[in-house]
Write a structure and sequence with these properties.
The chain is α+β, with helices and mostly antiparallel strands. The protein folds into five domains: about 1-30 and about 355-495, Multidrug efflux transporter AcrB transmembrane domain (Multidrug efflux transporter AcrB transmembrane fold), CATH 1.20.1640; about 45-130, Alpha-Beta Plaits; about 135-180 and about 270-325, Alpha-Beta Plaits; about 185-265, Multidrug efflux transporter AcrB TolC docking domain, DN and DC subdomains, CATH 3.30.2090.10; about 500-548. The chain has helices at about 1-10, 10-30, 55-70, 100-115, 150-165, 190-195, 200-210, 235-240, 255-260, 290-310, 320-350, 355-360, 365-380, 385-395, 400-415, 420-445, 455-490, 490-495, 500-530, 530-545; strands spanning about 45-50, 75-85, 85-95, 125-130, 140-145, 170-180, 180-190, 215-220, 225-230, 245, 250-255, 260-265, 270-275, 275-285, 315-320.
Length: about 550
Amino acid sequence: MKIVNFALKRPVTITILVTVLLLLGLFTYSKMGLNLLPDMKLPVAVVMTTYTGAGPEEVEQISKTLEGTLAGISNIKTIQSISSSGSSLIILQYNWGTNMEIAMTDVREKIGIIEKYLPADVDKPMVIKMDINNLPVLQMGISGTDDMSLVQLQTLAEDVIEPRLSRLPEIASVVITGGMEREIKVEIDPVKLQNYGLTLSQINAVLKAENFNMSGGSVAEGDRKYYVRALQEFESLDDIKQVAIATASGNIVYLGDIATITDGYVDDRQITRVDQKPAVGIHCLKQSDANTVKACDAVKAELEKIEQELGVDLNIKIAVDQSEFIKHSIDNTKKMILEGALLAILMLFLFLRNMRSTLIIFTAIPLSIIATFVLLYFNNSTLNLITMGGLALGLGRMVDDSIVVFENIYRHRSLGLSPLEAARTGASEVGSAVIASTLTIIAVFIPILFTEGIASIIFKPLGVTIGFAVFCSLLVALTVVPLMSSRMLTDRSMAKKTDGGRVYRLTEGFGGWLDNLGERYKKMVAWALGHRKAVIITVTVLMLLSLA
């Protein structure tokens, strides 16, 4: 076989390739994202529309208008609308495989066409793509000292903490909850409103028209140019009280005459507490391609810097930290892989009863795993429970090809061939068989590549990981194993020991039991070949009973 001959004729080349592969594997492993699950890009888009002050019936009219417009978009499977007081929610579920970037563009174009036909008080509809990565990776509550009010804490969170955390490359956005948000309340006297023949919508329109800044162009004077701005934003409560409103009779009434205007805070709808003390909630969302663990670590480090720079003793309590759960889950999976590898070494040693032989075969496990990391990295995969689980499931299969190749090499070496000839002949004889065996396993997972839905999201990374792992183990079995066998199966290593310590007695005892088991198996096979009808009938009956 050409690949076997190449490995034996070019030992330096194979050694260099293995070294490069190890270095590249360790590098790609450090660069791979660490998440709990694979990226789940659901084919779902949500259109959110706010209609402040409107009841469910009025909002339903908005929902029907949008729903009728969006129904003409291609690849939509179902449309669901939810109308409640002040808000409309339209959920668009697309067929699996739809390009959501193009779909989102189509939705925005349709909304842009219908937007001018919506009532003036309706806010611009927001289009949101459903993504698991939009969930906060870190949620915490922050409280201050006893002399720090909730207003001061809210200001600190909005002016310092949020901008600093938002600048982190791993963080997409920061959401603040709880605290006290400033609000100017305008409470209209309904009796006076009726007496003057005014409506709430009129007052709302006047307030919007009066509260704005605008550019007035520029004025040139000599070699200087002055930019003009019309500053009309409200700066105090008196400015709001002096807003003039024209009545139906043509008279002017000031807002302060028909309303009570106060500077206060938004009514509490969310309450955050830390150790029974009022606090501000901080929710951090990571970038879609960011490493969850690195994102959480970056936020924690930045909070420590902020606390040191401000000299303020902040009490930070983390409520939800996805990185800790991910670390715990991945560490458990790594532990499982390590334990499986150690058990594989033990079983190989007990069966082979030779340390060199065990080392040759066991080399396939770390080389295959590290090579798999390289393929996963260039496949844009992340380290998660599914991919790590795939490595754990494929762990036993990684040594199968190496065992078959090495056993045949060992047999030819026992027949008197030189180490080099035994490696060439033994590996070439079974090369086609191990290739067929590996391709059969890979073929089992091919249908998974064509599945759709949640099953595809979960099982495709599993199948890809196992496929990569067994493919890498095949390459190791046909190159590294023959090369190591040609160097390590010396006459001294092949000589059978006649005496040894406790380990020798243990392996020989296990070997004797295994040889005895082999003899019994031979007798059982001989009996089965002599009683073919009884064996076929027994197997058929057992199969039918299992199906019953």
